[in-house]
């Protein structure tokens, strides 16, 4: 059966959550950068294999996607400063 714990020592908002915040920030960062890498790879491969535009066009398109993605996903400076 479930144990009943004494919650009288718990104070709302007093828990140190820095590790959880760091883990979430790392997860979010890895997710966005891996998504960009996947988008670059897919653009390159689709243009290379599904069209007759050639390698150079596929490479240019991938570089454009990489530059636009990096610009949009880079960490913005805090507005509070």
Characterise the protein shown here:
The protein is mainly alpha-helical and 81 residues long. Helices cover 64% and strands 0% of the residues. The protein contains 2 helices and no strands. The chain has helices spanning 18-50, 55-73. Helix 1 runs antiparallel to helix 2 (55-73). The longest helix is centred in the middle third of the chain and has 33 residues, at 18-50. It starts with 17 loop residues before the first helix and ends in an 8-residue tail after the last helix. The model has no long low-confidence stretch (mean pLDDT 87).
What's the structural blueprint in terms of helices and strands?
Elements: H1 18-50, H2 55-73
Helix pairs in contact: 1-2
State the gist of this model.
Helix 1 packs antiparallel against helix 2. 64% of the residues lie in helices and 0% in strands. It starts with 17 loop residues before the first helix and ends in an 8-residue tail after the last helix.
Write the element-wise H/E pattern from the N-terminal end onward: HH
Which stretches are poorly predicted, pLDDT < 50 over at least 5 residues? none
Percent range for β-strand residues: under 5%
Report the C-alpha radius of gyration, rounded. 23 Å
Shape: elongated
Number of helices: 2
Helix content: 55-70%
- Largest sheet at a glance? none
The overall average pLDDT, rounded, is: 87
Total strands:
0
How far is the N terminus from the C terminus? 52 Å
Structural class: mainly alpha
């Amino acid at each position: 059966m479930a144990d009943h714990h004494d919650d009288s020592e718990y104070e709302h908002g007093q828990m140190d959550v820095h590790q959880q915040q760091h883990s979430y920030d790392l997860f979010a960062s890895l997710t966005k950068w891996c998504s960009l890498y996947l988008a670059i790879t897919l653009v390159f491969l689709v243009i290379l294999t599904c069209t007759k535009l050639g390698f150079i066009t596929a490479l240019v398109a991938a570089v454009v996607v990489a530059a636009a993605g990096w610009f949009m996903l880079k960490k913005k400076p805090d507005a509070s400063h």
